[in-house]
Specification:
47% helix, 16% strand, globular
Length: 379
């Protein structure tokens, strides 16, 4: 770990690198966009139903808010798409909208083989790469361009939703912070910035919490907490912390405050559509909420351990337990590569008083010598 003076900066550097390894790679992202554009053109060309209407087809969910997490045990991501028709929602039945989307996709030789019918959406499975969930919906009113009604096949009627408004809400929350603690520290130390996608502490925190969730429920995911619940709670409890570590710390603390001081369960509504209860399943099946409480309590306990001055070995053990060995080792290797590149470019020095690595040329700092191929110091 790059030994910054501030403990939270040290942890943030490692957490940032672990979260970076979790996200959608550039190749797969570009492939998703290609398939998205192809589906968009196919629906637009439909003479039978869709072409006469004004509508939009747009991504939402983790890809849009940039909190994707690579699944464990398989190499697939999910892309959520909304098919947003701009007509009065009560003109058509929910069955009609769902049927027309199904019909159009089934007319395509490739799409019909990839279709999987879900309760509110139709999934296209691109085996080994990703799956695309297409959610059909109709605009709910004229004064809110984002709010839609979507068909619920189990209930048999329209339900209110707002996937695009939700994305805007979350990104606005994340962007409260203009410059993160880690970015400030890198500038202050005159160290090279991480060559990562520029993400805010809230986005990184959500990625890490979701990864811990996947590890925690890996052996039995029957009552696994959904990503939309975790993401919403994180956004609601976020107080603009500049640190990834402190963002997670605040979120788990506030969850715990609720669970230990209240006998009633936590209720998580869509922050841009109070009619949509993301935790309605917890009401029907309390074991989902019990699993959520147990999972959050374990995360809280482990996060408290990171506060202590455990040393690198103990911190590594905790982080590997939370996020997995592979993710931790990748982050360590990434750090080592950055240090080596900076050393070879004569950008790093060692403080003669404290022994801490810092920028070369600063007061009380000696240059770190470059390693040759054979491991000897360069002259």
């Amino acid at each position: 770990m790059i030994p910054f003076q501030n403990k939270y900066v040290q942890l943030d550097d490692l957490l940032d690198r672990m979260a970076e390894s979790l996200q959608l790679d550039k190749t797969r992202y570009e492939l998703m966009i290609q398939h998205y554009e192809a589906i968009k053109k196919w629906i637009e060309a439909d003479e039978q139903f869709f072409k006469p209407f004004k509508y939009e087809l747009y991504p939402h969910g983790s890809v849009r808010i940039r909190t994707t997490v690579k699944p464990i045990g398989k190499d697939e991501f999910d892309l959520d798409i909304a098919l947003h028709l701009k007509v009065q929602w009560d003109i058509h039945t929910p069955e009609k909208i769902y049927f027309e989307l199904r019909r159009r996709l089934s007319e395509h030789a490739i799409y019909k083989e990839k279709m999987e019918l879900k309760n509110r959406c139709i999934r296209l499975n691109y085996s080994g790469d990703f799956h695309m969930d297409i959610l059909p919906g109709v605009q709910e009113n004229d004064w809110d361009e984002d709010k839609i009604r979507v068909p619920d096949r189990l209930l048999g009627y329209w339900v209110s939703s707002n996937p695009r408004g939700y994305s805007k809400w979350f990104l606005n929350k994340a962007n409260i912070v203009k410059i993160s603690l880690l970015e400030k520290a890198l500038r202050a130390e005159n160290l090279p910035s991480n060559d990562f996608e520029n993400k805010k502490p809230l986005q990184r925190a959500v990625q890490l919490i979701k990864r811990y969730r996947d590890i925690y429920f890996h052996d039995d995911d029957t009552f696994k907490t959904s990503s939309i619940i975790l993401t919403t709670i994180a956004g609601l409890y976020y107080n603009g912390e500049e640190s990834i570590y402190l963002t997670v710390e605040n979120i788990v603390n506030r969850i715990r405050q609720h669970t230990i001081h209240n006998s009633w369960r936590l209720k998580v509504l869509n922050p841009v559509n109070s009619e949509e209860d993301f935790t309605d399943k917890w009401e029907r099946e309390p074991r989902y909420y019990q699993a959520f409480e147990t999972f959050c309590e374990h995360l809280y306990e482990q996060w408290q351990e990171l506060k202590k001055e455990n040393g690198i070995i103990s911190e590594g053990r905790i982080l590997k337990g939370l996020f997995g060995d592979e993710l931790y080792f990748k982050a360590q290797t990434s750090q080592a590569d950055i240090i080596e590149k900076s050393r070879n470019a004569n950008q790093l020095g060692i403080n003669r008083n404290s022994g801490i690595i810092g920028a070369a040329g600063t007061v009380s700092t000696s240059l770190v010598k470059t390693n040759t191929f054979f491991g000897n110091d360069a002259d």
